[in-house]
Amino acid sequence: MPRIVGGIRRAGLDEGGPDMGVDVVLYRVVATGSGRRRLVPAEVLPDPDDVLLDLVQRVRGGGRTPLLDQVDPVGELVVPADRAPQLLTELRSLAEVARTSPETTHVRRLDLLARRCRQDREMEIRFEGD
């Protein structure tokens, strides 16, 4: 079970070695009764070439991306729908440092996931490390 960090559930370590991509998964949260919930994957943005992790490392620690600074290459960061507006704001920082076509495409696709999450309170985004 991920632990709570600043209102965001998270599990894992803060360190990773090479080839530790971070996939982004948009989940629909489905209530199953008795207060339980089930996560149903709605869309996956894979990162086999570490594009996202490289971008996050370029902006980390500058004070503009406190949410993205928590992305963990070997853990999980859960961003509920109510935090999607903050994620969208921070994605602008990633767009500013994106230099290649794969990087800009990845940021654009992540932006679309965050917009879907913001529009539907039954969604959440998970940054899932290896």
Written description of the protein model:
The relative contact order is 0.25. Strand 1 and strand 2 (8-11) form a beta hairpin. The chain has three helices and six strands; from the N terminus they run E-E-E-E-H-E-H-H-E. The model is unreliable at 1-18 (pLDDT under 50). 32% of the residues lie in helices and 32% in strands. It has 130 residues and is an alpha+beta fold. It is globular.
Topology order in helix (H) and strand (E) letters: EEEEHEHHE
Number of helices: 3
Overall mean pLDDT stands at: 87
Low-confidence stretches: 1-18
Strand order in the sheet with the most strands: 1-2-5-6-3-4
Counting DSSP E segments of at least 2 residues, the number of strands comes to 6
- Helix percent reads 25-40%
Form type:
globular
C-alpha-based Rg, rounded = 14 Å
Beta-strand level of the residues, as a percent range? Answer: 25-35%
Largest sheet: 6 strands, antiparallel
- How far the N terminus sits from the C terminus, by CA atoms, comes to 16 Å
**By helix and strand content, what is the structural category?**
alpha+beta
